[in-house]
Amino acid sequence: MNTIPMINLSPALKGDMAARRAVARQIDAACREIGFFAIKGHGVPESTVDDLHRTGLEFFSLPWRINWQRGTRGV
Asked: What is the reported pTM?
């Protein structure tokens, strides 16, 4: 079984074009070989990531009918 690739985005955000291309190659390879990847070095505060995780858990703990109604507003 393959592991989920962990890609560090900070070289692409802070580096030169060569660093950006290197990160892009990692993303390309992950998408082609596995289909998805995890990221680090993105600059999003940990508190924001924690809030997103908590909100996702709350959303998916609700009955599906409630989630469906919330997800289709304005569609």
From this structure: 0.69
